[in-house]
Design brief:
Strand content of chain B: under 5%
CATH topology of chain A: MetI-like fold
Structural class of chain A: mainly alpha
Order of helices and strands of chain A: HHHHHHHHHHHHH
Number of helices of chain A: 13
Strand content of chain A: under 5%
Structural class of chain B: mainly alpha
Oligomer: heterodimer
Largest sheet of chain A: none
CATH architecture of chain B: Orthogonal Bundle
Helix content of chain A: over 70%
Largest sheet of chain B: none
Number of helices of chain B: 14
Distance between the termini of chain A: 32 Å
CATH class of chain A: Mainly Alpha
Shape of chain A: globular
CATH architecture of chain A: Orthogonal Bundle
CATH class of chain B: Mainly Alpha
Chain lengths: ~290, ~270
């Protein structure tokens, strides 16, 4: 392999790698280092504190709450959006009058900014004004403040996520459904296979890789997207909707406790890395790619 | 052929339309209140007069024109740089052999999991050292090298037949000439797909711009909208809804006009 080729290749890669290293790899490594140091305050410089930020985290009830909420939020949003997206894909898979209108209804929330989505839903939930409350009052129930009550805040936020995500994942399910060969349907029909059995034994296994892809994306989003929390609840009330990344933001930019924020970020990085490793192995074993 | 029985058909259509109606209700409700006077924001009356008043009020109460300009500058800058940097890198990964190739490609893939979005504190510090806090450039910088774009374009470039390279080489084409004359034209559909994904992503991005900007001159629409909607100045819901729809309108209109391309781009971009 001629040496000139290497140099060309490296030159082509250089500009991209400058930015990649400066804003992804360097900050990731630096965050790890910072998580073992204290936050510099005034004239007091940062000192090495070992695992102190992590031991503090273990004793921090808000962190425990944020972890629990993030887990619950992931457990609520991921399966719901996957099941709904699959249902949507099945609904719009066949041709009929109005199919594109139906597809549009499902997909539109996806193109809206999450901040806009949060505003739309805040209005939808608004006590007294919102449609939900109007229906409640029409039916004779009292007014309810879904985002303002600790018992319901996280569910209210999760519902918004599902609304925005399901249509996006529908696209991938739809693409997967279209790759299922017609001959399989014909064969199944000759065998007199019922539709439900066909779905369970043929369709589902064949779209497994897509389901995996969608679940990985949903998992990453569950930890990475907190825009709506800023508008809807700010983590409240009483930390009821505090998610991990929102807690990182609060520590880093509201209390300026950057060392603790670094330790919290490392937890987030660890979770995402686990997701990545999990995806790698799942793709290897259970899911058959072509 | 497995055919739908009439009963299946009725069940599927009914369930489908019910879900679709449920899905469109929140947006329809916001639309209703934005286009009617505040008195009707929660009162349904088909005779309620339509009005654009709420949009005018919203436009006048916050510097939305400037926010629009900032967002447009931002998405244009990010997309242009991304396309140039990532095309170069993707070409190297797709067609050249060099030591460290798989290690470097692994480093690119890391970004698909650990995005700059979650490394807020450290990236803020870097921008502070560079003296770039509160600039539009700083909002875009962390996204210039997109691991996703490199991956997508590499996959596309690998499908281009090698015979084309050789033919171009025989004609005396340089490496960059080959990239420009053969790979870029053939990679255009993938670039368009990535372009739509990138523009909608950065139009909608919120957390990093919120952290790095603090003035009207740099704030993108999303941050401007969130400030407008959360100030406790007793702004009516109808006006907030109008502002919300206004900021999403360009993407929404683009989507309605180019539905097919949008859907196909998202699909292309997602399937690896």
């Amino acid at each position: 392999m001629p040496r000139r080729h290497w140099i060309h290749a490296w030159l082509l890669l250089l500009p991209a790698f400058v930015f990649l290293i400066a804003f992804t790899h360097y900050p990731a490594v630096q965050t790890l280092i910072d998580s073992f140091w204290s936050t510099p305050k005034g004239r007091r410089p940062s000192v090495f504190v070992g695992a102190e930020n992590y031991t503090r985290m273990m004793a921090d009830p808000v962190f425990a709450k944020a972890m629990w909420n993030s887990a619950l939020y992931a457990a609520l949003t991921i399966p719901t959006s996957i099941v709904l997206s699959l249902a949507m894909a099945l609904f719009v898979h066949t041709r009929f009058a109005g199919v594109s209108l139906m597809r549009m209804a499902f997909f539109t929330p996806t193109v809206l900014p999450l901040i806009a989505v949060a505003n739309i839903w805040l209005f939808f939930y608004a006590p007294g004004f919102g449609l939900i409350d109007q229906v409640r009052m029409f039916l004779g129930f009292g007014s309810a403040n879904y985002v303002g009550q600790p018992a319901t805040a996280l569910y209210a936020v999760a519902a918004v996520t599902v609304w925005k995500e399901a249509g996006f994942f529908m696209i991938f399910c739809l693409a997967a459904l279209q790759t299922i060969p017609q001959s399989l349907r014909e064969a199944a029909a000759i065998e007199g296979c019922p539709r439900l059995t066909f779905f369970r034994r043929v369709t589902l296994p064949l779209i497994m890789p897509t389901t995996l892809f969608v679940s990985v994306n949903a998992t990453i989003n569950a930890f990475r997207l907190v825009d709506h929390v800023f508008v809807m609840t700010r983590g409240g009330p009483d930390n009821a909707s505090m998610l991990l990344l929102y807690y990182v933001f609060e520590n880093g930019f509201r209390y300026w406790d950057t060392a603790y924020a670094a330790a919290l970020t490392m937890v987030l990085v660890a979770i995402l890395t686990l997701v990545g490793i999990g995806q790698f192995f799942a793709a290897d074993r259970r899911v058959h790619y072509r | 052929m497995i055919t739908e029985t009439p009963l299946d058909k009725i069940l599927m259509r009914t369930a489908g339309w019910m879900l679709a109606a449920l899905w469109i209700v929140p947006l329809a409700y916001a639309l209703w209140s934005a286009f009617h006077p505040a008195a009707f924001e929660a009162r349904f009356d088909l005779t309620a007069p339509l009005t654009l008043e709420n949009f005018v009020t919203a436009w006048g109460k916050a510097p939305f024109a400037r926010y629009f300009l900032n967002t447009i500058l931002l998405v244009t800058m990010v997309l242009t740089v991304q396309l140039v940097l990532c095309t170069l890198a993707a070409f190297a990964f797709a067609r050249l052999e060099f030591p460290g190739k798989s290690l470097l490609f692994g480093l690119v893939l890391v970004q698909l999991l650990i995005m700059p979005d979650i490394l807020l504190v450290e990236n803020y510090r870097t921008m502070f050292r560079l003296g770039l806090v509160d600039t539009i450039l700083a909002i875009g910088l962390p996204y210039f090298a997109s691991g996703f774009a490199i991956f997508l374009l590499r996959q596309t470039f690998r499908t281009i037949p090698r015979e084309l390279d050789e033919a171009a080489r025989v004609e005396g084409c340089s490496l960059l000439g080959l990239l420009w004359r053969v790979y870029v034209p053939l990679g255009k559909p993938a670039m368009l797909a990535f372009g739509l994904v990138s523009v909608s992503h950065h139009w909608n991005n919120f957390l990093w711009p919120l952290v790095i900007t603090n003035s009207v001159e740099t704030r993108p629409l999303t941050v401007g909208l969130s400030i407008f909607a959360t100030t406790d100045s007793g702004i009516e819901w109808a006006v907030i809804n109008a502002a919300t729809l206004m900021t999403s309108a360009p993407l929404l209109l683009g989507f309605l006009l180019f539905q097919r391309q949008f859907v196909q781009s998202f699909m292309r971009a997602g399937i690896k």
